[in-house]
C-alpha cells in the first residue's frame, strides 16, 4: 500500500512564527503536492514538485515556500505564519498514472 | 479556466442508492477520480475512470462518464451509515500533474 506520512497531525503556532510541515512518501513517486483545505473552498493547490529540487507554484503559493531535497520528502514552509493560514494541509504524491495518494492531513491553527 | 462543480449536500436513507454528480470543463482529461474523506482524515482514493470508458463498476460503486456533456457520477448501492463522508470529484488538469478538485459533496446517511 502507498503510504504518505505527514509528521504532525495538530499544530498550534503564534503569528509570525516559522512553521515547517513535513511529508514523506514510501513509493518512490516522482510527484508530490501540498494542498490546503478550507470549508466551502475545497482543496486548493499550494505547490507541487515533479523531481528533486524542482518545484512549481500552484493556485495559492503566496506566503508559502517548499523544499524537496530528497525524492521521498516534501516540506511546506510558512516563513511568517498568519491567522489566515489556519487550515488543514494535505500532502500527496502520485504514481505514473498520476493517481494521487494523500496523507492524513495536518491541522494548523495560527493564533 | 478549468473547473469542477459538484452539489454540496446529499441526504439519503440507509439501504437506498446514492448518486453524486460532477461536471468538469477540461475535455482533454485522461483520468477522472472520486475521493472519499471521512471526518478528520485525509482523502482516500475510491475509484477512477479512464476517459475512453463509459462505465466502471467496483462492488457497490458505479461510475458513469458522459464525455459529451462532461458529466461524471458516482452511484453507491445499498448506502450504509459508514458511507457518510465528503466525496470529491477530480480531473487531471492541463498544467502538468496536479488534479483539479471539486468542492466536495457531503453525503449524510440516516438510519
Strand-helix topology:
The complex is a heterodimer of chains A (111) and B (111).
Chain A lengths: L3 E3 L3 E4 L5 E3 L1 E3 L5 E8 L3 E8 L6 E2 L7 E6 L2 E6 L8 E8 L5 E3 L3 E5 L1
Parallel strand pairs in A: 2-12
Antiparallel strand pairs in A: 1-4, 3-9, 5-6, 5-10, 6-7, 8-9, 10-11, 10-12
Chain B lengths: L3 E3 L2 E5 L4 E7 L6 E7 L5 E8 L4 E4 L2 E6 L4 E6 L8 E8 L6 E3 L3 E6 L1
Parallel strand pairs in B: 2-11
Antiparallel strand pairs in B: 1-3, 3-8, 4-5, 4-9, 6-7, 7-8, 9-10, 9-11
**How many strands in all of chain B?**
11
Percent range for helical residues of chain B? under 10%
Mean pLDDT of chain A: 93
Shape of chain A: globular
The protein's oligomeric status is heterodimer
Secondary structure category of chain B: mainly beta
How many helices of chain B? The count is 0
Order of helices and strands of chain B: EEEEEEEEEEE
Most extensive interface, chain pair and sizes: A-B, 25 and 21 residues
Quick one: overall form of chain B?
A: globular
Secondary structure tally, helices of chain A: 0
- Please write the string of helix (H) and strand (E) elements of chain A: EEEEEEEEEEEE
Low-pLDDT windows of residues of chain A: none
Tally of DSSP β-strands of chain A? 12
Share of helix among residues of chain A?
under 10%
Low-confidence stretches of chain B: none
Radius of gyration of chain B, in angstroms, nearest whole number? 13 Å
Average residue pLDDT of chain B: 90
Query: Could you say which structural class the secondary elements and strand pairing of chain A correspond to?
Result: mainly beta
Amino acid at each position: 500500500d502507498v503510504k504518505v506520512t505527514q509528521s504532525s497531525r495538530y499544530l498550534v503556532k503564534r503569528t509570525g512564527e516559522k512553521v515547517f510541515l513535513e511529508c514523506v512518501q514510501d513509493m518512490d513517486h516522482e510527484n508530490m503536492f501540498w494542498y490546503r483545505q478550507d470549508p466551502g473552498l475545497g482543496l486548493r493547490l499550494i505547490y507541487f514538485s515533479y523531481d528533486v529540487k524542482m518545484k512549481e507554484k500552484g493556485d495559492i503559493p503566496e506566503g508559502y515556500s517548499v523544499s524537496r531535497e530528497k525524492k521521498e520528502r516534501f516540506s511546506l514552509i510558512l516563513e511568517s505564519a498568519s491567522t489566515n493560514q489556519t487550515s488543514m494541509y494535505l500532502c500527496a504524491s502520485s504514481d505514473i498514472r498520476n493517481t494521487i495518494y494523500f496523507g492524513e492531513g495536518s491541522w494548523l491553527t495560527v493564533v | 479556466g478549468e473547473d469542477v462543480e459538484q452539489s454540496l449536500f446529499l441526504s439519503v436513507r440507509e439501504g437506498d442508492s446514492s448518486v453524486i454528480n460532477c461536471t468538469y470543463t477540461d475535455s482533454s482529461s485522461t483520468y477522472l477520480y472520486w475521493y472519499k474523506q471521512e471526518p478528520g482524515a485525509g482523502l482516500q482514493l475510491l475509484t477512477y475512470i479512464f476517459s475512453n470508458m463509459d462505465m466502471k463498476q467496483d462492488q457497490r460503486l458505479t461510475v458513469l462518464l458522459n464525455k459529451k456533456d462532461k458529466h461524471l457520477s458516482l452511484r453507491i448501492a445499498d448506502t450504509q451509515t459508514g458511507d457518510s463522508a465528503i466525496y470529491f470529484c477530480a480531473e487531471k488538469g492541463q498544467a502538468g500533474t496536479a488534479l483539479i478538485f471539486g468542492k466536495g459533496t457531503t453525503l449524510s446517511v440516516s438510519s
